[in-house]
Specification:
Largest sheet: none
Distance between the termini: 35 Å
Number of helices: 5
Low-confidence stretches: none
Structural class: mainly alpha
Shape: globular
Radius of gyration: 18 Å
Strand content: under 5%
């Protein structure tokens, strides 16, 4: 949050569409690094230290993402804010789902091997790409005529 706050204070925007200069790119990559590291730690903490377990932690973060999806479709909340909130929530979700797939059954996991767990997640990603509609975007600063 501090990184996003500093980025906004410096640039008056935290939209990824504005990542077109070295200073803005530095803010972007710092935000990505912190969200990856702290999000994974949050997912591990939620699953291990709160009593929710891996499946409960995954359900908690998936519910948070569902709330954000509802906000996207049914409110006028800033799309940039919703993007960063969703981006941040996907990190602990990924940590808890990954742990759920490969941790021992005695610890609340499914005891799949790391390669099989990776294959399951990879298959899910490919299915999402094939099932969900994709549309090309435009690079920030690129004019409509150049498209």
């Amino acid at each position: 949050m501090a990184t996003l706050g500093a980025w906004y204070w410096s640039e008056r925007s935290i939209s990824v569409a504005t990542v077109n200069r070295p200073r803005v790119e530095a803010f972007y990559w710092i935000a990505i690094t912190f969200s990856q590291t702290l999000g994974t730690a949050l997912g591990d903490w939620t699953a291990d230290d709160t009593g929710l377990g891996y499946d409960g932690g995954a359900l908690l973060f998936a519910t948070g993402l569902a709330v954000l999806a509802a906000a996207y479709f049914f409110t006028k909340v800033s799309r940039v804010l919703l993007f960063w909130m969703a981006f941040i929530l996907t990190r602990p979700l990924g940590a808890t789902v990954g742990d759920f797939l490969d941790k021992p059954v005695s610890d609340g996991g499914l005891a799949l091997s790391r390669p099989i767990a990776s294959a399951v997640i990879g298959a899910f990603i490919v299915a999402c790409i094939l099932i969900l509609p994709q549309r090309a975007g435009q690079h920030p600063g690129q004019s409509e005529a150049a498209s």
